[in-house]
Amino acid sequence: MRIGVFGGSFDPIHQGHLILAEQCREQADLDAVWFVPCAMSPHKTQGAQGTDRQRIEMIELAIAGHPAFQLARIEIDRGGVSYTVDTLKAICELHSDDELFLLLGADSLDSFDTWHEPGEICQLATPLVVNRPGAQEIDLSVFEKYVDSQRYESFCRHSIVSPLIDIQSRQIRDKVTGQQSIRYLTPRAVQKYIETQKLYCEK
After folding, report:
1. How far is CA 97 from CA 59, 106, 151, in A?
2. What residues does each domain of the chain span?
3. pTM of the model
4. Is 2-165 a CATH 3.40.640.10 domain?
5. Starting from the edge strand earliest in sequence, which strands make up the sheet with 32-37, in order?
């Protein structure tokens, strides 16, 4: 199987996440995309506002009905700081015959050198980099020093073209706090869940 690994806080999951995942699934011919909510992001100073349970339930609502989209609780169950390399190693141990792909926004490239064991990440999974609004043309040379020329060429063949959907989870949280509409920014089921749970109503 070809498995796409999509990590993040998903606080909340939104249409931009889903469009990115679907474009990667289709263009990279993935058999599955695993949504992996983090326990604690090493790249964010503040923790998630939604609880682990709430973020998991929102993901389940958002991906319901898509046969290739799955929730993976790996990082939540492990707890602590969620390092991508540890997650990929854990998946490889259980799925040694499968090929892993790591879904990334182009903005992640600027900080990739600071990630925990970036070289090992490049050995475990092929990055699928999707551009975002306002970003320059994708430059994958950040990966070049971590892999041999053949593997780097493989990375370059896997660039993803996607509609530019500039939605951020923080934007949704701020809108909820400000009593503004979030309709169409996130799936309707997630919107209703946020309302029912009274999520993000206060900073």
Report:
1. 27, 28, 18
2. 2-165
3. 0.94
4. no
5. 69-71, 32-37, 2-8, 99-105, 126-130
